Each structure stands twice: as C-alpha cells, then as structure tokens.
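Tokens in:
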C-alpha cells in the first residue's frame, strides 16, 4: 500500500467523526477500507483510461478514489446527503469524479446514458436495493457494457446459478437473457466497516447482444414470472393462472415447446423459457388477429 493511501484509510474514521457522520441502517452502509480489495475490484471491472464508470452508493468515496485513478470518468450516485462533507474531503483534488446526491432508482437512466455514452457499472451495492437496481440495468440499459458489483453472497449465487439449483429463480433467468454472470471474488464480512452480518461476493455481469433472443422481452418477463409464481405447482398450472388458459390449451403450448406436462419452472433453463415465451407470443398474436377479424 502506498503511504499516502494508507494514511488516507487510517484517517477515514477521523474524517467521518469530524463530519459528524452516523451510519444509517436503512441505507445498508458498510464501507470498504482495504486498499488491496478496492484495487482488486477496479481490476476485475476492467476500468481503464478509455472507460466511463457509473458507481451507485459511493459511501465515503474509497472505491470512487480507486476508480478515478484508473478510469476516464466516474459518475457516482449517493443517496445520503450527510456524506456530502465527507466526500468533499475524501475526493478533494480528484477532477474526473462527479458525485450526484440522490436516489439512483428515481434517476432518468436514459439521460445518464446520453451523458456517459458507453460505460460500465462498478459498485459496492447497498444490499437493500441490489435486485431492483440490477433489474433496472437488465431491463432498461442500452449502453452499459458490464456490471461489476459487490453483493450479498447468497444473492451472488442466485444471479449466477443453473436450472435445478435451490438458488435458481426469476432473477437468474432475467439476467441470463442479456448477460453472462460470474462470481469473480469472494469477500468475507470482516473486510467491511462496520462489519455486516453476512459475507459478500463480487459478481461481474457482461452484456452480450442477443444472448438469448426472444420475440418479446415483455412476454419473456411474464413467462418467467409465471414459471416461478408458485414453486409447488407445475408449470402447466402456473401458465393457466398467469395467462388465463384452459388446461387443454396449456398442454398444447407446453407440447409445442417440448416441455414435459409435469415440469416445474425451476427445472427449465432460460433458453427453454425463451422458447416457451416465443410460443406464447405467437399464441397471443393469433388470438388478437382472430379477435380483430371478428370485429371487421
């Protein structure tokens, strides 16, 4: 560790105390102060001098500093305005980092993407917003290249697992449609301050154009939701409930997708669910055409 950086890390607690900062449980504030871990996260993200970085939940700015040292530009969001005087000190003299104080989930993503162009996301995510935040990029981003994010260990497994696993669910399938997901680093709880109750992991999601092509992204989302709506029920029953299908029609659709009648959603791969969603899209289009022809 370079001496100035070591001094900065040792001074961080004094800075927080001097600014009258108090940790808030509702924001899931657990800061990283280990320089080697911070540099490892930056390295795993692939950030370099040609890269624009979006950081969510910059906290005391420790990761922001490391990102700014490697990246072209860092745009960081922080919801807790009480950190403003802290960040004014920890990011003093760093010209390629901008902090926006506000709730990222309420920000206009399309406007952010117009400002950044092509970019990557790197963040030590507040655990309470992990899934909605990741889904925001999966469903709405047009120019993010990757997400390298620190998340709770069990959530990391959920993002990256395979069909049939107890951790497999709707979020796994949503991510799989657009991105390759991989756990790239395990992080014990003692690496944070204050120490949380769980271990963490760094997950990297790399966006791949047309990774799993579907006719309708909305229908894929609805199919995935239906598949996992009730794990105890068969997919046939879940389709009947979700799409108001008679049993015979649900059986026909499953047969067309080459899915066994008694299958459950958790046993199907994202590719199988995509094929099923395409058949449901075709069925919906045919039903609309028949309805319109009757009106004419």
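Residues out:
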């Amino acid at each position: 560790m370079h001496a100035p950086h070591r001094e900065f890390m040792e001074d961080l607690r004094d800075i927080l105390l001097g600014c009258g900062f108090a940790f808030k449980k509702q924001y899931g504030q657990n800061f990283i102060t280990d320089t080697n871990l911070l540099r490892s996260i930056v390295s795993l993200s692939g950030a370099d001098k040609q890269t624009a970085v979006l950081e969510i939940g910059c906290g005391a700015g420790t990761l922001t500093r490391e990102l700014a040292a490697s990246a072209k530009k860092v745009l960081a969001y922080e919801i807790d305005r009480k950190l403003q005087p802290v960040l004014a000190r920890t990011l003093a003299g760093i010209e390629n980092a901008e902090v926006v104080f506000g709730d990222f989930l309420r920000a206009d993503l399309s406007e952010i993407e117009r400002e950044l162009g092509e970019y990557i996301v790197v963040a030590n995510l507040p655990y309470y917003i992990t899934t909605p935040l990741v889904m925001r990029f999966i469903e709405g981003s047009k120019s993010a290249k990757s997400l390298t994010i620190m998340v709770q260990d069990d959530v990391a497994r959920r993002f990256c697992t395979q069909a049939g696993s107890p951790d497999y669910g709707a979020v796994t399938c949503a991510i799989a449609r657009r991105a390759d997901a991989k756990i790239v680093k395990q992080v014990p709880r003692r690496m944070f301050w204050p120490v949380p109750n769980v271990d963490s992991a760094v997950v990297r999601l790399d966006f791949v154009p047309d990774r799993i092509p579907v006719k309708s992204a909305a229908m894929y989302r609805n199919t995935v939701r239906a598949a996992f709506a009730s794990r105890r029920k068969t997919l046939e029953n879940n389709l009947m409930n979700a799409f108001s299908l008679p049993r015979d029609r649900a059986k026909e659709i499953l047969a067309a997708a080459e899915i066994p009648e008694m299958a459950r959603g958790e046993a199907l791969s994202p590719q199988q669910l995509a094929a099923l969603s395409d058949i449901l899209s075709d069925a919906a289009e045919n039903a609309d055409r028949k309805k319109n022809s009757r009106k004419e």
